[in-house]
């Protein structure tokens, strides 16, 4: 695998070649990944995978015209043809008044801080096999587990580099470790599946095989013999496994491209109190060992911690350069890059914890549902209408009263945001984290 410095050299070389070929401006993004994973099922080796891949994408600008191409072929001759093809495509593209690189005066000025994203480890197939076996054994040891879909362990290393023709060059590397188990409880028509999973940059930060496996088995057994959900408008509690989705829906609604197109249900609600005044949702790109930590965005602009919701209100849109130009605003350092034009993304996100335990949030609920799994994509980001399939547990007289399945929860995100009450059980386990959330007044229907 290339070093970060070598990855930067490759991106800069392609960017320079584009300018020599006639582009007025260009940027190039290089990404490579090497991953090893081992899967065990019922105590036997099921699969070993090793993948190594690299990709480079070039974006060029000729006046107000632009084009993007990408390839995994790093042959020098092929890259030269790629540059020529991209410039030729740009010459034929329609003009876009918002096309262009990020403002030079706003670019990140290095050196980049070290967010401790790489533990320097190399893949050890033997250790991965032992971990995959152990996590499955821990799950299968739970009374009531009758079958397994397997345990898996993986290791990865990545390199990312971005260079632009107007002076930016930055890159970083990271390591990744993950462990999971998926098992089945029950027999015949009364079978239920569930899982346990965790990932981290450092192996030392990974949850133990016993905890992950036991959680997978316990979750599967707890789902046996599901009943019917109550029908009507009832309080809903969202488990931390699914509560982060509320943040995801918010991000989609405040993304600059959606605002510029006029397709967000939050358009025109910038000054409205959408949440309770105590709700804080924070984007923290500089968290040590954060799964999405980064010093600069996909256009080379610096990132910074920001409360995207404070005092119950959104604090502004998340903007890349193009959407910022359309809206007459400044970019916010939230651009993301794939194989072509930039989009918008956030980094390490969390909804701040409240001051009540999940049990206290549940107390006083006569009939309600506790949701542990959501199914489907039934969210209209233009209107905010929300309808998702779900499974979880019945809440009866303030207590968990047994599993339920095959029901839907529905509402409108504006009403749902206003009703959110967070519990105190926030944990930083994923890229997006939220505690247990209570949302009153959602419509529950059982099939």
UniProtKB/TrEMBL annotation:
Q: Which domain of life is it from?
A: Bacteria
Q: Where is the Metalloprotease TldD/E N-terminal domain?
A: 36-90
Q: Which residues form the Metalloprotease TldD/E central domain?
A: 121-224
Q: Which Pfam families match?
A: PmbA_TldD_1st, PmbA_TldD_2nd, PmbA_TldD_3rd
Question: Which InterPro entries is this protein grouped with?
Answer: Metalloprtase-TldD/E_C (IPR045569), Metalloprtase-TldD/E_cen_dom (IPR045570), Metalloprtase-TldD/E_N (IPR002510), PmbA (IPR047657), TldD/PmbA_N (IPR035068), TldD/PmbA_sf (IPR036059)
Q: Which family does it belong to?
A: Belongs to the peptidase U62 family.
This protein is called: Modulator protein
Q: What organism does the record attribute this protein to? A: Sphingopyxis witflariensis
